[in-house]
């Protein structure tokens, strides 16, 4: 694998108008898109306005269909296992709530699980009498595979794991977890919200039954885009939460037949312009190579952690053997929101990670809020240096 070189980085920055005006380290919130993405969306909307919505859709039908092929390539799935949805939470909720839970069924998750997913577990607990169990990280901050095995019982219905948490730079070993899920014949749901576009994602290697993704983060796609993977063999085992004439066909006045692919989880009406934008963003990432993107992201994040750790009164909170592009830290005596605000005054975007996002982990580590700086391949070493100098000035 050939690392991204300086000439390539400059090309990608030239093709991203947003980098000219600021330093963007909020890629875990929403990346700056390459210019081709908003241009595609805007041009499509202009055509809708002048030619009509249905007519424009017909003109771009081939390109719209290609988005499914691009998603399938990105995650190594079959195109009939892919549905386009508004975001990862929608996709996750469609399949999670489609599982036929019974009283006493058990869900296993990690302490890094996202708040929306935890709320889903609690809702299933209240409505269906299920139990959810949490595998704690070990002293080094790694997910405990032994702990997972010990929690599995005859009642375990689902293992649900967020690969990259919202408020930490560590990662869950989703491939190893998948092997255990398959060994025990347990449904396996992966939240890859922060993963796709940053880390190579291969659903066949992971062995997951379902996987949800959002577009706006490391994929550099528009907000309001995402997709869902549902393994072919699992599709008929999930109830449909919503249904229209796109998800199913009329057979007679008293019968309908659910379509034979993952698009059963979609509804007919969606934003076609954003679908094309999602496709363009995925195509852009594939042309670079997600493995090369991942190498660059790891390098930049590692450099950022090293330089931040060298600053007095700055504490880096990331953990685990494998770490990603999300870097979390705090500045002694200064609230995270104040740090964010002062950096913004200097044209540097970061975000504040609040306890609510991953409550179990944050409570365990006595963290209320931390600063989250998330690097992407189009960021530079110089930008990291500017961030660190700005933090020194804030601290002083």
Tell me what the structure shows.
There is one protein chain. The chain is built from 14 helices and 15 strands. The chain has 396 residues and is of the alpha/beta class. The chain has two domains: 6-32 and 289-395, Aspartate Aminotransferase, domain 1 (Alpha-Beta Complex); 39-287, 3-Layer(aba) Sandwich (Aspartate Aminotransferase, domain 2), CATH 3.40.640. It has a seven-stranded mixed sheet, sandwiched between helices. A four-stranded antiparallel sheet has the order 11-12-15-14. Strands 1-13 form a two-stranded parallel ribbon. The model has no long low-confidence stretch (mean pLDDT 96). Residues 25-385 form the Aminotransferase class V domain. GO terms for molecular function: transaminase activity. Belongs to the class-V pyridoxal-phosphate-dependent aminotransferase family.
Features:
396 residues, alpha/beta, Aspartate Aminotransferase, domain 1, Aspartate Aminotransferase, domain 2, 2 domains, seven-stranded mixed sheet, four-stranded antiparallel sheet, 15 strands
